[in-house]
Structures are given as C-alpha cells and as structure tokens.
Structure prediction request, 129 residues.
Amino acid sequence: MNIMIKDEQLNGTITHQFEINVESEFITAKELIEKRVTFEVEQYNTKFPEYYQGLIEPTESEKTLNGYKLKKRQFIDPEKQVYIALDAFQKNGYFILVDDKQVDELSETISLKQDSIISFVKLTPLIGG
Prediction:
C-alpha cells in the first residue's frame, strides 16, 4: 500500500511531500524511518538531481528553497543517513505524527490504513553524511 509522507514545520506548513510503498499495515517507527530515508537516498543516487529532497541534510550541502544543494553531485551513503535519522529521532530532533497521533519510541508499532498520513516535524536542522 502507498502512504503519504509529509515534512512539516512547527506552524503546520508543508515543505515536502511524497508517497512510499509499504508491504504491511503494521510497521515500527524505526522501520518507517529506515524506509523513508533509504527511499530518499536511492531516489537521489539513481538520478543525481540538482537538489536533494530528504529528512537529513547531506554534509557539504546548503539548504535552499528547493531542497539541499550539494556542492558537487555525489553518492550519498544511505546507511549513514539512516543512522543519523534514527539518532535524531531519539534526541528529539524531529517527531512523527501518524494520522495526527505522535509516535514516541522507535520500537512503537504503527498501524497504517490506506489513507494514513505521516508527518515528520523537524525541530532542529538535521545534518548528515
């Protein structure tokens, strides 16, 4: 099933949104973060677009209105990005809302529906690899 992922600011402004496919209606927060970050990195590494749209800002990049612009287009390590994203979640760098209910723990199992909306709300800039 496809689910909607949104990046939001604290005031509710949506800065980025896309759909990802999940195989099951039950997923842990950790699995969701891994799936989301891996998807974003794979999208970038496949096409090397001018801007990277993702949860974690790659190192040697600058934030722009269109996403993160890397100083030179280069391969981004998905494993490193996932590690930084999981660490940031545990340190309250961002929180996750699933159908307007906050997810508190990486081990928490999330029940998804076909129309579920998942929001990632950043509290601090997340810079990675």
Summary: The chain has two helices and nine strands. The chain has a mean pLDDT of 91. Helices lie at 29-47, 78-90.
